Amino acid sequence: MGTVFWDLDGTLTDPKRGITGSVVKALRELGLDAPSPDNLEWVIGPALLWSFEKLGTPDPQTALEHYRVFYEDKGGMYDCTVYDRIPEALTTIGARHVMHIATAKPHAYARKITAHFGLSKFMAQEFGPELDGTRNDKAELLAYALTQTGDDPAHCIMIGDRHYDLNAARAVGMKFVAVAWGYGGADDLSDADAHVNTPGELPGIVDQFLA
């Protein structure tokens, strides 16, 4: 038995409509021009404060506060879907291995989403940054998670869709499995230990690495 750390956005769920829609509304609330949702897919994955900085907003923190109104208070966080065949993959993998969430989304939001979509029942623990930005860095988050679980990273796998996930796994000594259905299209994931095109491939890959 080993341990699997799952990314959330772009790996277990497709959050595009909720995240990009809330970013657009936040920018417009500040009187700023907003890219189309299709041109904002790159914001899915990293910490949103960093994304607002990259978008050139004069006050990224204020933009983030407006984003949170639309995303949390007005229900944008639930405007997402669980990828097809993910529940089946979680059921199979969870029967043989311990599983946790490790997401760049604040855990205050992530836990509501996983509970709403029936994913929390598969997870032993769920890790994400604090709302004040503590542990926004994914490598720092994974390192913290390991202190809480007591796992040996040599017996762990990180599964995700972005280079943030890959780099974090490498930083703490975990193997990394890259999924093809998320939002890492422009990212360099060639250094992943394995690549999968469908959720159905995941149980076999996980068993191979955690045998």
UniProtKB/TrEMBL annotation:
<dbReference type="InterPro" id="IPR023214">
    <property type="entry name" value="HAD_sf"/>
</dbReference>
<dbReference type="InterPro" id="IPR041492">
    <property type="entry name" value="HAD_2"/>
</dbReference>
<dbReference type="InterPro" id="IPR050155">
    <property type="entry name" value="HAD-like_hydrolase_sf"/>
</dbReference>
<dbReference type="Pfam" id="PF13419">
    <property type="entry name" value="HAD_2"/>
</dbReference>
<dbReference type="GO" id="GO:0004713">
    <property type="term" value="F:protein tyrosine kinase activity"/>
</dbReference>
<dbReference type="GO" id="GO:0005829">
    <property type="term" value="C:cytosol"/>
</dbReference>
<protein>
    <submittedName>
        <fullName>Phosphoglycolate phosphatase</fullName>
    </submittedName>
</protein>
<dbReference type="InterPro" id="IPR036412">
    <property type="entry name" value="HAD-like_sf"/>
</dbReference>
<dbReference type="InterPro" id="IPR023198">
    <property type="entry name" value="PGP-like_dom2"/>
</dbReference>
